[in-house]
């Protein structure tokens, strides 16, 4: 998901759009019948889906509205947390 977001955001910001804004809400028409982690809350009551977006570089505006600015995207992509390397051997 992170790789897809990186590619999509690079393309969007390259054409001059300054922010991606949306509402973080769980799918209203789930395909599977298992419990959906998106609807679960963390210890502080925040939806896990919102936490996922925050991990990807989005910031919360109001409620579950999220925004990714070109500035935050660049910062998130450059952080060590998002550029983990896998050791082999």
Task: Describe the SSE topology.
Elements: H1 2-14, E1 19-23, H2 48-55, E2 59-60, E3 65-69, H3 70-78
Antiparallel strand pairs: 1-3, 2-3
Describe this structure as you would to a colleague.
By secondary structure, this protein is of the alpha+beta class. The chain has one domain (2-24, 37-82). Helices cover 34% and strands 13% of the residues. It is built from three helices and three strands. The chain has helices at 2-14, 48-55, 70-78; strands at 19-23, 59-60, 65-69. A three-stranded antiparallel sheet has the order 1-3-2. A hairpin with a 4-residue loop joins strand 2 and strand 3 (65-69). The longest helix is centred in the N-terminal third of the chain and has 13 residues, at 2-14. The protein is globular and about 40 Å long.
Give the overall shape.
globular
* Amount of helix: 25-40%
Q: Could you tell me the radius of gyration in angstroms?
A: 15 Å
Count of helices?
3
Give start-end ranges of low-pLDDT stretches.
Answer: 82-89
Give the structural class: alpha+beta
What is the string of helix and strand elements?
Answer: HEHEEH
Quote the average pLDDT: 77
* Domain module count: 1
Separation of termini? Answer: 26 Å
What is the strand content?
5-15%
How many strands appear in the DSSP assignment? 3
Largest sheet: 3 strands, antiparallel
**Strand order of the biggest β-sheet:** 1-3-2
